[in-house]
Specification:
The complex is a heterodimer of chains A (about 200) and B (about 550). Chain A is an all-alpha fold. Chain A has one domain: Cytochrome c oxidase, subunit III, four-helix bundle (Four Helix Bundle (Hemerythrin (Met), subunit A)), CATH 1.20.120.80. Chain A is built from 7 helices and no strands. The N terminus of chain A is likely disordered. Helices cover about 65% and strands about 0% of the residues of chain B. Chain B has one domain: Up-down Bundle (Cytochrome C Oxidase, Chain A), CATH 1.20.210. The chains are: A mainly alpha (about 200), B mainly alpha (about 550).
């Protein structure tokens, strides 16, 4: 009887807990989500509350190309990851470069959109409530894209310099998770700003 | 062979001469969770003294009608800095410090999951604290004498707009808290990941000490609830520096939205602050009653549901702003719901003591007082949760009395219990029991004298945050009584500090396990070595040290 109890109470021979890096990035994403939620809520609350123009329906165009670019960069980064897993560094670099270019295209088109809004439509962050919430929310997202881009570039540069990037498969994976998160946030921002808010 | 000889010739590290610079270097470069934990706690204690002295000045100003101790502007700055400091620079670092020091030890790990992130969290927090206090010098910019923020700890819009808050003092408030918040989030994330990924073999979630459970849920609340404040502060910065309109009512913005955002953070925050006390009580009461905690699963469930419900009660701070009656009803109901899990906890602690072999050492005394006082604080909370009642007493001294009863008579008592309980582990020496009891009784009398009268002042109509009052209001007696509590609280605090300092150097040697306790931190030496455990322990029940001490009657037979 005792022997049976001892066996059941003994710690399992194989003691495996979730990887701490994985958990770290997951909870980082959770806390970032909480941050974005408040900005999204502020945007939703203030839809249609602007006392003066320009109004979203007059000045906003759907950023279709930029959105397609950003969302497809989530696909290319997965391809890059797969290549890395199979140690095909050349192919990895190609897909990685594609990811960076797609991200860059998104940032450039955001910049052009802002340029148009500021110079043609005279909408700045202080013009009205729409301007305040629009630049804050889109800007917060864009700043996250920029942070992601910095890390993407870092990986690109070190792997071009000959660093054995396949040893960093785990970290590349975390970076891609962050990138997916930024893309997912864009889906929300797109629907809130360009679909619901327009 | 030669290399071994060379190693032997090296002077042992312990005998190296004390030098200030090497000490400082070690302090700045350390990533050890125990050192960082202590640094958090010592910083919190220093800020506690500063904010406590501010409270002293506030009470002296209010002791008599038409007080002349400070002028009104200084008074506004005092209560703003007192509240902000107590919440963000005392409460939060206590959360971080306690969980940093104890969680890895309790789960049988050698360090936190991310030691460097941990160090980053501490230093950025400290920088945030300095930034806030730098406002005393740089508050109005280079042009004039400085001034601290005077917008209250919840900094309601539009008081914080450029028009009403000139100079840079409010910006220091925003940035200081924002930066300290980053540190708190970093530390909370670290605690969560440590708890999930670093437990020693056999330490299933079912066997995890209650302390770790509570701190896990506490950290979860921090990473969910702090970002809303950061977001709101970013919006406020946009308003102040870029001419944004978030909280600018003249452009259609809403001042009430700030209140919503602030309390979406602010109400979970008060649970974030009280949870360490729950965690400490759940360890101290069983040890000093010689019984395992009563209803462990119910306790965990209660903490988890408090953590969940507390995210949906924020607007009970806003009954007076004129929300719809549906909102008022919802937030009244959800707030009352918190009373259920809190009641479960109080009952379980009491049931743990029931029939136990109670040892009334100082930590246990503080726990007992906590039970009574926190019960009162909870009941006044239920009163304030009722919308119509709140309309009568909103922003009165009743509210001040209520939250000081939760945070001082509750949280601070819990923290004192924890500090006495783990002092032998941290320092390797026993504190002086006689002084501990003096501290307890003096502090108890002082707290009751100061905070009970505040409830009556609220009933008599005294609003919070007024800098003085006329003598014919009938508030004189209660105010004087509240201030007289200082005569007990101040000496009690001095005794506490003296006890800690004296015992650190002169106290009796404690040994590894002076309390005959059951959790893993008592299995290693006091103070624990840098690597915590020589070999990573294996755990079979929720009381591993009980199993070790009673091999004939181990817990795992029954769990």
């Amino acid at each position: 009887m005792d022997a049976v109890l001892t066996e059941t109470a003994a710690p399992p021979a194989e003691w495996k807990l979730p990887d701490r890096g994985t958990m770290g990035i997951i909870f980082l994403i959770v806390t970032e989500t909480a941050l974005f939620t408040i900005f999204v809520v502020a945007y939703l609350v203030y839809i249609g509350k602007s006392l003066s123009g320009p109004y979203p329906k007059d000045v906003l165009d759907l950023p279709i190309v930029a959105s397609i670019c950003l969302l497809s960069s989530s696909v290319t980064i997965v391809f890059a990851e797969h290549a890395l897993k199979r140690h095909r560094i050349g192919i990895f670099k190609l897909w990685w470069l594609a990811t960076i270019l797609l991200g860059l295209e998104f940032l450039v088109s955001t910049a052009l959109e802002w340029r148009k809004l500021i110079y043609q439509d005279h909408l700045t962050i202080s013009t009205n409530l729409f301007g305040t919430t629009y630049y804050s929310l889109v800007g917060l997202h864009a700043s996250h894209v920029i942070v992601g881009m910095a890390f993407l570039l870092l990986v690109m540069i070190v792997s071009l310099l000959g660093f054995p990037i396949h040893t960093q498969e785990r970290r590349v994976k975390f970076l891609s998770w962050y990138w997916h998160f930024v893309d997912a946030v864009w889906v929300i921002v797109f629907s809130v700003v360009y679909v619901i808010g327009r | 062979m030669a290399s071994i000889d060379q190693q032997l010739e090296r002077p042992p590290v312990a005998e190296a001469k004390f030098s200030f610079s090497s000490h400082l270097y070690e302090l700045i470069s350390t990533v050890d969770h125990k050192r960082l934990g202590l640094m958090y706690i010592v910083t919190a204690l220093l800020f506690l003294v500063v904010a406590g002295l501010m409270a002293t000045i506030i009470r002296l100003q209010l002791a008599f009608p038409n007080g002349r101790v400070v002028d009104p502007d200084t008074f506004n700055r005092l209560f703003t800095m007192h509240g902000t400091t107590m919440v963000f620079l005392v409460g939060m670092p206590f959360v971080a410090g306690l969980s940093n020091y104890l969680v890895p030890l309790m789960i049988g790990a050698r360090d936190m999951a991310f030691p460097r992130l941990n160090a980053f969290g501490f230093w950025i927090f400290l920088f945030g604290g300095f930034l806030l206090y730098f406002s005393y010098i740089g508050g109005s910019g280079l042009s004039g004498a400085g001034s601290a923020p005077d917008v209250g700890w919840f900094a309601y819009a539009p008081l914080t707009s450029r028009a009403f808050s000139r100079g840079a003092s409010t910006d220091y408030w925003i940035l200081g808290i924002f930066v300290a918040g980053i540190g708190s989030i970093a530390s909370a994330l670290n605690v969560i990941v440590t708890t999930i990924s670093m437990r020693c073999p056999g330490m299933t979630l079912n066997r995890m000490p209650m302390f770790v459970w509570v701190m896990l849920i506490d950290s979860w609340l921090i990473i969910i609830a702090l970002p809303p404040l950061s977001a709101a502060q970013i919006m406020l910065l946009i308003d102040r520096f870029l001419g944004g309109n978030f909280f600018n009512t003249q452009s259609g913005g809403s001042a009430v939205l700030w209140q919503h955002f602030f309390w979406i953070f602010g109400h979970p925050e008060v649970y974030i602050l009280i949870f360490p006390a729950f965690a400490i009580l759940s360890e101290v009461i069983p040890i000093f009653s010689r019984k395992p905690i009563f209803g462990r699963p119910a306790m965990v469930g209660a903490v988890a549901s408090i953590g969940f419900i507390s995210l949906g009660v924020w607007a009970h701070h806003m009954f007076a702003v004129g929300m719809t009656s549906w909102s008022n009803t919802f937030f009244t109901a959800s707030t009352m719901l918190v009373g259920i899990p809190t009641g479960i906890k109080i009952f379980n602690w009491t049931a743990t003591m029931y029939g136990g072999k109670i040892r009334l050492a100082t930590p246990m005394l503080f726990c007992c007082a906590f039970l009574f006082q926190f019960l009162i604080a909870g009941l006044t909370g239920i009163m304030l949760a009722t919308g119509p009642f709140d309309w009568q007493l909103h922003d009165s001294y009743f509210v001040v009395g209520h939250f000081h009863f939760t945070l001082v008579a509750g949280l601070v008592f819990g923290l004192f219990a924890g500090m006495y309980y783990w002092f032998p582990k941290v320092s390797g020496r026993l504190y002086n029991e006689k002084w501990g009891k003096w501290h307890f009784w003096l502090f108890l009398i002082g707290v009751e004298l100061t905070f009970v009268p505040m409830h009556f002042l609220g009933f008599l109509g005294m609003p919070r945050r007024i800098y003085t009052y006329a003598p014919d209001r009938g508030w004189n007696f209660w105010n004087l009584l509240a201030t007289s509590g200082l005569l007990f609280q101040l000496p009690a605090t001095v005794i506490f500090v003296w006890n800690m300092l004296w015992s650190k150097f002169k106290g009796e040697r404690a040994g590894d396990d002076p309390w005959d306790a059951w959790t893993l931190e008592w299995a290693t030496t006091s103070p624990p070595p840098e690597y915590n455990f020589e070999s990573i322990p294996e755990v079979r029940s929720s009381r591993p040290l009980w199993d070790l001490k009673n091999p004939n009657d181990p817990d795992w037979k029954f769990e």
